[in-house]
Amino acid sequence: MPEPPARPVDPTAAGGGLPGAGTHPADAAEPVCPRHPDRVAYVRCQRCARPACPECQRPAAVGVHCMDCVAAAAKTVRTGRTVFGGRLHQGRPVVTITIIALCAASYVAQLATGWWTDAWAFNPVYGAFEPWRFLTAAFLHSPGQLFHILFNMIALWMVGPYLEQTLGRARYATLYLLSAIGGSVAAVLLAPLLGWDQWMVGASGAVFGLFGAVLVVLRRLGRDAGGIVGILVINGVLGFVLPNVAWQAHLGGLLVGAALGAAYAYAPRERRTLVAVGATVVVSAVLVVSTLVAYAAVGLV
């Protein structure tokens, strides 16, 4: 029988036809990362489909994204806010931990040196010429009384992380620092009655400011504040019963903390940032002016 004619050979097919014919080298080029052209990248971004090397890959819910797509998406995401409008931060209470670390380091310095306490402690007269003492005294504690720093740090840890998460780090840090200063200012204002030769150390004024703020915040949120009220009453009584307790610092910190806490908690939603900044400025101005008036009355300024 006659055989069928042979099929023509395609000269462009790989492995057949003309000698040396096959896939063009350019067609088989390996994909490379746009950011690092010297790196081969077989993984592609799920958003833009461009190759991405391991250094440029970012894990996503499905597959991976490249650095450029992640950066572009971040610009369109709204910043999370706390219940009172502060910037929301996840994770550890960084501000509270930092304050505790500073107090602990300062306490070690007090024990290790003979001048650290004298350099930073607060006295109403010295405060007129060295105003940094209004704040630095809040990071010192009685060197011979370990329970002084322990009780203050425990109290700080009890309420600090909650306020830091609820108010936001910036508002919380402002609240703490101004409450500390408020305790020193109260000592100046009451110095004509209690004497100008008193020395003060301790974070109690700032901690009482946190107590005042958390009391207002809990009431604003409709939560039970009975435990905080009980703590305030007990500590208020101890301030008058125990010796060497600067109750005036407790009072000053409490008033400043309650005032700022009320401003942060009750500000209208659309004006929270404006009210927070305004309240901070007003409280700071009141503290400065009242201190200058008290000093002027006795000729210290």
Automatic annotation (TrEMBL):
Alphabetized GO MF terms: serine-type endopeptidase activity
Biological-process GO terms, alphabetical: proteolysis
Residue ranges, annotated region (Disordered): 1-30
Keyword Cytoplasm set for record: no
Coiled coil: none
Domain Peptidase S54 rhomboid: 130-264
Record key words, sorted: Hydrolase, Membrane, Protease, Transmembrane, Transmembrane helix
Keyword Hydrolase: yes
Cell compartment(s), UniProt: Membrane
A Gene Ontology cellular-component term: membrane
Listed InterPro entries: Peptidase_S54_rhomboid_dom, Rhomboid-like_sf, Rhomboid_protease_S54
Spans traversing the lipid bilayer: 94-116, 145-163, 175-193, 199-218, 225-243, 249-267, 274-298
UniProt main location, coarse: membrane
SUPFAM superfamilies assigned to the protein according to its UniProt record, in alphabetical order: Rhomboid-like (SSF144091)
Topology in membrane: Multi-pass membrane protein
Highest taxon in the source lineage: Bacteria
Record family assignment: Belongs to the peptidase S54 family.
Protein name: Membrane associated rhomboid family serine protease
Species this protein is from: Cellulomonas oligotrophica
